[in-house]
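Request: Show me your protein:
***
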Amino acid sequence: MDNEVSLPRDFDALRTMILDRREMLPKRLAQIAAYALSNPDEIAFGTAASIAQTAGVQPSTLIRFAQHLGFDGFTSLQSVFRERLRERQVSYEERLSALRGDTHGLSKNRVILNGFLTAASHSIETISHNVEEDVLASAVDILAGAETIYLLARRRSYPITAYMAYAFGKLKIRNQLIESTAGIDPEILSFAQPTDAAIAISFSPYASATIEHAAALAARNVPVVAITDSAFSPLAQSAKVWFEAAEGDFSGFRSLSGTMALAMALTVSVAEKRRSF
């Protein structure tokens, strides 16, 4: 086919293509695109049937998605995801399977600890690869110039903003952790001005309050720096700058190690930037 010459042959090029076309994708294809970017290992190792079931679509949708991107079928698209892992001698999933299945005489507690340490290591490695220098610099500039930094998160993302609030306080940086038990978060956020900024963190399934608050702030020209798991995240749509943090998991429990490292890097970098003012 004519466009075969321009087909992406590595994951980074494929990811760029998907992001460039995300606004034009039909609903079901956008659903697959979001799943693929958030779960590249599953796309690489799964069958069309298993991937479709997990992503909540029909197997035929995978074929349509591949063809929409210019590939002749899903297998051709899948080869790009597999190439991404080719340099690894042992895949992440295989390492976790080995931890679950072959304890080598270790106690169950030690196996669980090793599993979470492996997931955390994978998360940190992935986030380190995904964070771009210019995006990091832009986020630090926004936050360092803010009069007040508002911190938005719920559920499993909340510990990240709670620790950022603690660290910002120690660094004498004005911040407001949005956690009102009185239910007046919208009223607190109404004080935010374009001279302020917000950090919003949420992962699938996204916390509706975080998404709504971030959108409301963006509509009032308050810059939002987001940490989320996909370019298709509703949080990314409200952000002036956003980071992709796809955390690994062990036995269904996702790590926060990579996100915490990124959050603390932002916190300390903002403090350092302010010292240069």
Residues 108-130 form the longest helix (23 residues). The CA atoms of residues 85 and 91 lie 7 Å apart. The first strand starts at residue 149 and ends at 153.
